[in-house]
Fold these 2 entries.
Entry 1:
Amino acid sequence: MLEKIDHIGIAVPDLDAAVAVYSRLFGIEPTHREVVASDGVETAMFEVGESRIELLGSLGPDSKIANFLVKRGGGIHHVAYGVADVQLALDHLAAEGTQLLDTAPRPGAGGRLVAFLHPRAAAGVLTEICQPDPSRPSGDH
Amino acid sequence: MLEKIDHIGIAVPDLDAAVAVYSRLFGIEPTHREVVASDGVETAMFEVGESRIELLGSLGPDSKIANFLVKRGGGIHHVAYGVADVQLALDHLAAEGTQLLDTAPRPGAGGRLVAFLHPRAAAGVLTEICQPDPSRPSGDH
C-alpha cells in the first residue's frame, strides 16, 4: 500500500541557509519553492532518486512547524509515503484501528493530496501519505 | 553524488513492538533482522520502493542510540543516502569543508559500507552515506 518514500520533511530555522547547505550537499538546486499558506510554511524541494527532500521554513508563530522549531531547533519533521489513493489508504488504516490526524485528503505542497497519521501510529514518527492531485499542476517542473 | 534515499533509521524503545506496527502499516514483514554489535543496536529492515525503513533497537546503555532514546523516547534518528563510492564521496565532502563524523567507511547493517556526516552539515539532520560492501553478503535476501 505504501509504495515508496515520497519525501522527508526537514524543518529549518532559516530556509535560505538550508537551501544553500543542501544545494552543495546534493550538487543540485531545488526544483521549486512554494508557500503552503494553510500550513504557514514555505517549502523548497530537492529530487533524490524516486524521492524528494522537502525543506520547511516557518512563516510565523502559528505555522505547523513553529512548535517543533522552538522545541528542537530543527531536524526531520515528518516522512511521507506515496500511495495510489489517499482516501482508500485512510479508510483501510482507520478500519485497522490506526490513529489518524486527517480522515480525508487535503491539498499539500508539490501538487499533492496529503493526509497525516498520528505519530503514535508509526513508532513516534509523524507520518504522511500522499498522491499526485489530478486537479492541480505538480509544481515540480 | 547522493543517488537515492537508501534508508531512514528510526530509533524505537521496543523493537518487537515497532516491527509489529510497521508490519501492519506496510502490509509486509521485515526482510531481515540483524545485530550490529559495533553500534550496540539490533535492526529490522522493511523495503519500501527503492529505499528501506530501518528500525533500531538499543542493546544497552552504551549503544549509539541510547542517548537519543533517553532524550526523545524514539523517532527518526538518521537519514542515509546511497552513493557509488563512500570514500570518494567523503573526500569530496571534506574538500568542500563539510563536517564529517567518519573520515573512512566502516561496516554497517545490511551488508553496507557506511559513514556519517555531522548533523551541522545537513541542517540539523544526522546524515549517513552508504554503498553495498562487495566483501560481504547484503543480508537482504
Entry 2:
Amino acid sequence: MKIFQVEGTLVATARITQLENNRLLVLREKSGSRSVAVDPIGCKKGDWVIAVGSSAAKDAAGSSKYPSDLTIVGIIDYWDADEPGEVAT
Amino acid sequence: MKIFQVEGTLVATARITQLENNRLLVLREKSGSRSVAVDPIGCKKGDWVIAVGSSAAKDAAGSSKYPSDLTIVGIIDYWDADEPGEVAT
Amino acid sequence: MKIFQVEGTLVATARITQLENNRLLVLREKSGSRSVAVDPIGCKKGDWVIAVGSSAAKDAAGSSKYPSDLTIVGIIDYWDADEPGEVAT
Amino acid sequence: MKIFQVEGTLVATARITQLENNRLLVLREKSGSRSVAVDPIGCKKGDWVIAVGSSAAKDAAGSSKYPSDLTIVGIIDYWDADEPGEVAT
Amino acid sequence: MKIFQVEGTLVATARITQLENNRLLVLREKSGSRSVAVDPIGCKKGDWVIAVGSSAAKDAAGSSKYPSDLTIVGIIDYWDADEPGEVAT
C-alpha cells in the first residue's frame, strides 16, 4: 500500500457503467504525483490515507469485478517514523 | 487510476485477434510519457480522462479475457485541486 | 499498453518448460529502457509495436497459465500525435 | 520481491473491514521511498525484510481475497552482494 | 520480462511457510536497482537472466498460489542489440 493525501473530488459524468456512482478522489503522493482512487470509507480533503493497488483494489472496492486499480483502505491516525511525521496524532 | 489527456488514435492493422476492432488511443500523462489505452466510451482528442490499469483493465474493457492493461473508464468534467486545475468545468 | 521498438531476438536455451519455444524479443522504450516480450505476431527488427503487460500478457500469449508479463499485441502503422511522429505511415 | 527496512507501525483505525486487525508496517526502500505492508511474520523496527507485491501479496497475507498489494514474506539474515552489504549476519 | 544479472543468494530463515525452501536470488538491473527472485532453474552468480513479474511469476514458480512476484524463467545465451552487448555468447 502507499501513503497519500486526499486532494479533492473528481467528477466524471461520462463513465463506464461498471464504475457505478462510487466517489472518486484525487490523491497526491509526497512526491507530488497524482492518482485517482475509489473511496469506500468516506474521506475528507486533507486526510492522509493508505490505498491498495494491483488486483487487490478490486476486492477492496467491494467486488472482484469492480474496475479499480487503486482503492482507499484506511485513514491514517499516525505512524512512528524516524523523522517527525507529516501526520500528527 | 491515472489522469491522462487523449492525444490521438493509434492504428495497428496487424494485431492479435483477441484485440478485436476496438479503438486504441494514445494517452499522455502530465509528465509527458505516453501510453496506449482501449476506449470503450468514445473520447475525443484533447479530452482529459481517467484510465484503469492492472487486471481491472480487462474487466473494464468488457471481458476478463480481453488483453488490455489500460482502459479508459471516464471523461473528467473537473476536479477540485489545490492549484487552479488544468481541467476547467 | 506501451509503445516499443523491436531491437532484436533474445536467445535463452536454459528456460522453464512453460515458456515453450516461443520467440522472445528485446524491446526498447523511447526512454531507452529495455524489456523482453513474447511475440505471437512475427515482428521484425525495427518495427514499432504495442505490448501489453500485467496479467493480460498471459492471455495475449495464448493461455491464462503462460508465464509472460509482456506480450506484443500489434504492429503500429501510425499514430496521430501532436509532434510529427517517430512512426511514419 | 523487494528489499525493505522496517521503519515502524502505522495506525489506521478507520479501515475497510476486509483489512481486519492485521498489523501494518511502514517500510522504506534504499531509495528512501515508503510503502505500507501487511506483516504476517512479526518484524521489529530496523529489520531488513523482503516483501512481495502484485496479486501474490494477497495469498501471502493468507487469503486470495485479502486486500494487500505488499506483504512481508521473510526477514533477511544476510545476502552475499558484491559490495559489503548493509545487512550483516 | 526484464533483464537482470544474478548478484548472489539471499538467506531468510524466518519466512512464511508458503515460500517453502526455494532458493532466493538477489538480481541487479542495469540501472543498479536490486530485486529478489525465485530461481526454479539453478543460476550461478554473474549469470544474465530474464525474470517474469506480475501474476505470471506465480505460475512460473510452479503454482498459481505461490507467493512470488518475480521468478527467473531463463538464462540468457545472447541477444542481438544495436550496441555491442553486455552479454557475450
